[in-house]
Amino acid sequence: MSAFSGSASPLATVVIGAGQAGLSASGYLVRSGLRPHQDFVVLDANDGPGGAWRHRWASLTLGAAHAVHDLPGFPLGSPDPHEPASAVVARYYGDYERALSLPVIRPVHVEAVTSRPDGLLEVRAGENAWVTRTLINATGTWDKPWWPSYPGRASFRGRQLHTHDFVNAAQFAGQSVVVVGGGLSAVQFLLQLAAAGARTTWVTRRPPDWTDRPFDPAWGRAVEESVRDRTRQGLPPLSVVAATGIPLIPEYRAGQEAGVLVSAGPMTALTPHGVVLATGRTVNADAILWATGFRHALDHLAPLKLREPGGGIRSDGVDVAADARVFLVGYGASASTLGATRAGRQAARGVVAAVAQGTPGEGAASQG
Predict the structure, then answer these.
(1) Which of these, 177, 180, 169, 199, lies nearest to 263 by C-alpha position?
(2) pLDDT tens figures, 39-86
(3) Kindly report the CA angle at 170 between 166 and 173, in degrees rounded to 5?
(4) Alpha-carbon torsion (102, 103, 108, 111), positive or negative
(5) Terminus-to-terminus CA distance in the chain, angstroms?
(6) CB-CB contact of 113 with 300 (8 Å)
(7) How far is it, in rounded angstroms, from Cα 209 to Cα 243?
(8) Strand partners, 180
(9) What is the pLDDT of residues 153-198, one digit of tens each?
(10) What span, in angstroms and rounded, lies between the C-alpha atoms of 326 and 337?
(11) Secondary structure, 3-state, the chain
C-alpha cells in the first residue's frame, strides 16, 4: 500500500510504532479531530497488536510485570494477574485500536525517513511511501537488543540468547546458566531459572543497585527529571535500572537469602565452556543469557541527521531540537507506559500546532 506518495495532499502526520506511546499519540490525534487514514496513519512492524509486549516470555505474568498504565480514556480494568502479560496487553491494545478505528497498517518495516526539497517528510518501507508534514516516532527498543563485546564470545560452544529471545526457564532445567546484566530482567530470570532447577551464576559489571526507598510519585518525578536532563544535553538515555535501581521487594530479599540474587561480579572473557570472572575464577556454563538491555530503534531516522556528538538526540519532552517536524515518544523520560501516555498527548498537540501553521515544518532544516 502506497499512501499519498506523489499526492498533492500530504498527511498531517505518520506515527511509527503501535505500542503504548504510538497508540496514546494516535488516540489524542483522533480527539484533536484528525481523521484516520485521511490525516494520519500508524505504521507497525508487528503482525498484530501488543507492541513489544506481544513478544514477552509467557512466564512474565501481568502481576510480575511493570505496571501497564491506561491508554487515554480506555481503562485496562483488572485482568487476571496470573495471565501472561503478552496476552493481556495484546488484547487490550487491539481493543483500543478497534474502539477508535485507528488506521494501523501492519506489518510495515520502515526503512528510512527522509526530507524532501519541498520540506515534507517521506517515510519509506520497501516499495511503499507516505508523505507527511510531521512524524511521531514511537519505535521503542525491543527490535534492537544490545549484545556487549567480550573476548572469546564467539568461541563459547553452549547456547547464547538475549532477553529478546527468552521463552521459558523450564528448558534450562539441570543446566548451568550464566545470567549477564544488572537489571530487573536479570533478577526475574535468575529466580525463574533457579525455580526450574537450573544452576545459576549472576554476572554484573557493577554491584546491583538495590534500593528500599518507596517508588512513590516523588521518586517517579525525580527519575523522569534525571532522564530528561540527559536528553536535553543530547546524551543517550540511561537504562531503566540506572535511573530507578532494583526495588527490594520481599521476593527479591528471599532470593538474596537463598544465594540466587548474589552477584559474582564482572567477567573478563568467555571460554569455549564458560566465563572467566574478574576474580580469576572460571565458571562452566551450558548457556549464557544476556539480559543486557536494548538500544532505541532509530536507525530509520539516520537520514535526518538528528543525533548529537554525544550520541543521543537532543530533545525536550517530545520536541527534537534538530528538526521541528519530528516528535519522539517512548524515548528518554517517556519510555515507561505512564510517560508514554503523557508524551503521546504532547506529540498530538505538537502535530496540530504544526499543521495549523500551514507549512511543512517551520524551523526544520531541509536535510537529506
Answers:
(1) 180
(2) 999 999 999 998 887 888 777 777 766 667 889 899 988 888 888 888
(3) 115
(4) negative
(5) 24
(6) yes
(7) 10
(8) 203, 290
(9) 999 999 999 998 998 999 999 999 999 999 888 999 999 999 999 9
(10) 20
(11) CCECCCCCCCEEEEEECCCHHHHHHHHHHHHCCCCECCCEEEECCCCCCCHHHHHCCCCCECCCCCCCCCECCECCCCCCCCCEHHHHHHHHHHHHHHHCCCCEECCCCCCEEEECCCCCEEEEECCEEEEEEEEEECCCCCCCECCCCCCCHHHCCCEEEEHHHCCCCHHHCCCEEEEECCCHHHHHHHHHHHHCCCEEEEECCCCCCEECCCCCHHHHHHHHHHHHHHHHCCCCCCCHHHHHCEECCHHHHHHHHCCCCCECCCEEEEECCEEEECCCCEEECCEEEECCCECCCCHHHHHHCCECCCCCECEECCEECCCCCEEECCCHHHCCHHHHHHHHHHHHHHHHHHHHCCCCCCCCCCCC
Range in 22-36, 261-275, 345-359 the model is least confident about: 345-359
